Structures are given as structure tokens and as C-alpha cells.
Structure of UDP-N-acetylmuramoyl-L-alanyl-D-glutamate--2,6-diaminopimelate ligase:
Amino acid sequence: MKLSVLADAANTALPLGSEANVTGFAIDNRKVAPGTVFGAFQGAKVNGEDFIPAAIEAGAVAIVARAEVNVEGAIHIKSDEPRQTFALLAAQFFKPAPKTIVAVTGTNGKTSTVEMTRQIWRMSGERAASIGTLGVTTPDGSVSTGLTTPDIVTFLANMSGLAREGVTHVAYEASSHGLSQYRNEGLSVSAAGFTNFSRDHLDYHTTMDEYFLAKMRLIDEVVDDDATIVFWTGSSEWTVRAIEHAQKRNLRVFTVGEQGEKGRNGIRLLTHTPTQLGQELEIEHDGQIRKINLPLIGAYQSANALVAAGLVLATGGDASMTFDAVARLQPVRGRLERAVITQAGAPVYIDYAHTPDALESAITALRPHVKGKLITVFGAGGDRDQGKRSEMGRVAAEQSDVVIVTDDNPRGEEPSAIRAEIMATANGAQEIGDRRAAIAAAIAQAGGKDIILIAGKGHEQGQIIGSGESMRVLPFDDVSVARECAAPQGASE
Ligand SMILES: CC(=O)N[C@H]1[C@@H](OP(=O)(O)OP(=O)(O)OC[C@H]2O[C@@H](n3ccc(=O)[nH]c3=O)[C@H](O)[C@@H]2O)O[C@H](CO)[C@@H](O)[C@@H]1O[C@H](C)C(=O)N[C@@H](C)C(=O)N[C@H](CCC(=O)O)C(=O)O
Ligand SMILES: Nc1ncnc2c1ncn2[C@@H]1O[C@H](COP(=O)(O)OP(=O)(O)OP(=O)(O)O)[C@@H](O)[C@H]1O
Ligand SMILES: N[C@H](CCC[C@H](N)C(=O)O)C(=O)O
Ligand SMILES: [Mg+2]
């Protein structure tokens, strides 16, 4: 494909008279082949600009980089925002794209919401996929990408691959890291969901305002000019601010929740009643009141399910079909997933709560079902937002009856130091570093009326220890470990 054709379509200026045949795009010099356009970005760990000579050596025909960078032997596409320029060019290369694309952002609930959106579409007869923390999920299965929002080349290549396989509808997760690094640009996004906003990732974004503005790029810049934004209402002042961002661009605002609009532009949650295996929701949309039996427990899952329904309606879904599908939603892996019931009779739930707000939501979700004690086992990730640890400790201690503090991906930090930061506010908590031993201890002390919550890892399959060269991922799956620990003595190997 001709570089000038890509540049014209992306509205990007090329140096006068430059032309080349483009065979691919790469942001890592080790992936450059002859004919590649290389994006040279200043990163958090290293400076991609240092790899320009190596990229040219490997056959790069053009380099997208800042104007002040020296480029010899290839076309220099100069940009103040190289990541964005690179993304817009690459999006012209990786075509076709699925017809209907929606994005979901928010601190918690992105994975659940994109997965539910995919399920509703599928039940409505569409060929749908989702991209996010659980990987790329298609009608035929799931493949992990390692990140919530994959790098821009993987993201765009996945999108066009899906379109070629006949997928017409995709819901993707837009993390704040992904948004601030332009990892998903250049596609037509017809609707977006905003689930909620609370503390996370302050190691990367420094302040709550900066973290919030990173998310707002989705509304301010990424979605189409005639997009609809679906908001879960009533979570906080941040939602009100997010709605203002949508109004400023004249986008259609669709509100969902107890304060949601009752008409065409919203879903009002009228009543919400937990049942033994799920919850009964009474909602109003477009002047019509409906009852839905959602087969999932936890108020937070009803929020995610209704935001997903809003996204489907916003992109042309039929209301009856959409709400019927909500009543048939399947659980999302690692989100209040019941792993096992112990021999004493205590159910063990696995949940991916890894922020103070999420931990509170998970505990609140289980509380109505607890007749005895709620036992919470959790930790906090190393090399991640340090300040959230004490808040998580406080929430867990205040709202559970028994707390066991353990390890959760210590990465490059000293595990006992992470635990100490949690223990400082988790009054009365037990400390058991080894996660298997912590889960075993919770199961051993649970009676028949108790419920165990194991939080933080959800679907994860490993415990990440060390960083850089010495990083290791030890196989670990909360669901299997809980089952093993709950098995009769001698039943597991
Ligand atoms: C802090 C962060 O987000 N880092 C991500 C980011 O790295 P970066 O752009 O800062 O890259 P860098 O490693 O400093 O390198 C700079 C540039 O040099 C290039 N390079 C580097 C080495 C080399 O030999 N040659 C070369 O060309 C790199 O490809 C890169 O373009 O871009 C990389 C490529 O896309 C990502 O792999 C990397 O994710 C790291 C591994 C990571 O852990 N990210 C986490 C924090 C993350 O993004 N999490 C969010 C989820 C959050 C949530 O769910 O709430 C996510 O979306 O997954
Ligand atoms: N709507 C919600 N409100 C509050 N907490 C929620 C909500 N949805 C999910 N959670 C909590 O957050 C956890 C993670 O949910 P989910 O994976 O859907 O979020 P995410 O935004 O994709 O997270 P990540 O940032 O890791 O990608 C859940 O296990 C639950 O504890
Ligand atoms: N997407 C989140 C996941 C955190 C999960 C938790 N198990 C941890 O390792 O902190 C992050 O990368 O911060
Ligand atoms: Mg996620």
C-alpha cells in the first residue's frame, strides 16, 4: 500500500516528494520488517527514539517521531503527538474494521460491561466480539493479549482480523493507560459507556484529575461526532463532570440507573430486589416498564448489565430483544464467580476487586447473602498505586467480619512491605503471605453460615513475582486453589 494514500486518508502531512510502499506497522524495532512504518515513542521505561537507527537498519521506510528527532535513511513523519499520528495512519492500513464499535471506560466494570454487551449482541443474532482484560473473545473462543487495551498495532490488527472473519459488532475496554497512550484510535466508535470513577492507578496518573482527564479523551476525542455516551448515574460527582464533557461536544447522552432517563435516552432502574440466585430488576425505557430477572448476584452486575443494554440500544438494538437477553446473561469469569461450597457449607466467591471501591462493591454484593460471617481474603499488587492499599485495608476491615491479608502479584516489591501497608488500616486482620495458605485458612475457619470472598485476582492464572529479568509468573488460579483447599483431605494431589 502506498504511504501517500494512507497519509491522505489520515490527513497527515508527508515531507515533500516522499513515497514508499508500506507493508506493515510496528512500535517495537524488533518487529520491523522491510517496508514497515515505525512509531518511535518516548515510553515510561525506555525511549523508543533510541531504536530509530535499528528500525531503519531492519528496513523501516518511514518513522513517525517528534520533529526534533534525527532520522536518516527513511521518511520522517513529524508530529507533536507521534502516538496519535501513528495510530491514525495505521488505522488506514488495517482495514476493514467492524461496522459497529463501542468502547467502555470507567474505573471498575469495564470487562464485565464489554463481555455483557457482546453476549447481548450474540443473543440478538449478531456476530459479536469483545476486546479487554479477558483478551479477544469471539464467537469461536477467547485469546489473551496480556493487556486490557492491547498496543495500537495489536488492537488495529485484531479489529481488522475480526472484520475479515465476519464479526460486525465489537465492544472494547478503554483503559486510562490505553487512552493516554493512544492505544485505540482511528476507528469509528459509535457509542461509549462510562461505568464509574474512583481511585486507581495513581502511580501512573499522579492525581485523580489527571486520571479522570485521561478517561475523558474517550469522550472528547475518540468517539464519533454523532456518538451516544451511556452513563451509569448516581455513582459520583465525577459522572456529572463526565456528562458535561459529552454535552460540550453535543453528543447524545443516555443515562442509566436510579436517576436514568425514563424515555428514549435512558433506562431508569425503578426497583432492585436481590433473590437467591440473582436479582429482580424493574426498569423503565422509552415509556415502557419491564421486569427482568437478572441471573447474576451483586448490585454492581446489574449496573454493568444495564450499561451494556444501553450500548446495544444506542447502536440500534431492539428493546424487547435486548432486555430479554439481559435476563439470560451468563456470569463473567472471575467476577463474583462461585468457585466451590466448602464441606462446612460456606460458598467461596472469587472476585477481581482490586480497588477500594471495587472491594466495597464486592462485599456489599455478598452481604445480603451472609447469615454468619463474611471472610475476606485479599492483597494488593506490587508496582501499582501504593496509596490504594491502606484504603483497601480499611474498607475490608470495616465491612467484613474476618479479614486475611495475603499476596497479590508482588512484582518488583517486597511482599511483606505491601502487606504491612494494608495491615496498618485493616484492624484485627490476620496476615498470611502465601496465597494458597491464606485461602486454606479461610476455608478451614468458615462455618456453614459463612461466605468467603477471595478478591483481587479474578480470572488471573498466575502470581507475578519479581520484575525485569528476574520476573517469574507462578501458576496460580484462585478458583482451582479454592476447590483444592475445599476438597476432602487426600482427594486432591
Ligand atoms: C506503563 C505502560 O502502560 N506501559 C505500556 C507502554 O509502554 P511504553 O510506551 O511506556 O513503552 P516502553 O516500554 O517505555 O518503551 C517505549 C517504546 O520503545 C519501544 N521499544 C522498546 C524496547 C526495544 O527494544 N525496542 C523498542 O522499540 C516500545 O515498543 C515502546 O514503543 O506500552 C507498551 C506497548 O504497548 C506496553 O507493553 C506497556 O505496558 C506495560 C507492560 C504495563 O504493565 N502496562 C499496564 C500498567 C497497563 O497498561 N495496564 C492497563 C490496565 C489498567 C486497567 O485495567 O485499569 C492496560 O490497558 O492493560
Ligand atoms: N459497576 C461497578 N461498580 C463498582 N465495582 C464494580 C463494578 N463492576 C465491577 N466492579 C468490581 O470491580 C471488579 C473488576 O470488574 P471488571 O473486571 O469488570 O472491571 P475493569 O474495569 O475491567 O477492571 P480493570 O481495570 O482491571 O480492567 C469486579 O470484580 C468487582 O469487584
Ligand atoms: N489492570 C489492573 C489489574 C490489577 C490486578 C491485581 N491482581 C494486581 O496485580 O494488582 C492493573 O494492572 O493494575
Ligand atoms: Mg478490565
The pocket of adenosine-5'-triphosphate (ligand 2) is lined by residues 106, 108-112, 133, 148, 173, 195-196, 300, 303-304, 335, 351-353, 357-358, 361-362, 458 (CB under 6 Å). The two ends are 57 Å apart (CA to CA). The chain has a mean pLDDT of 94.
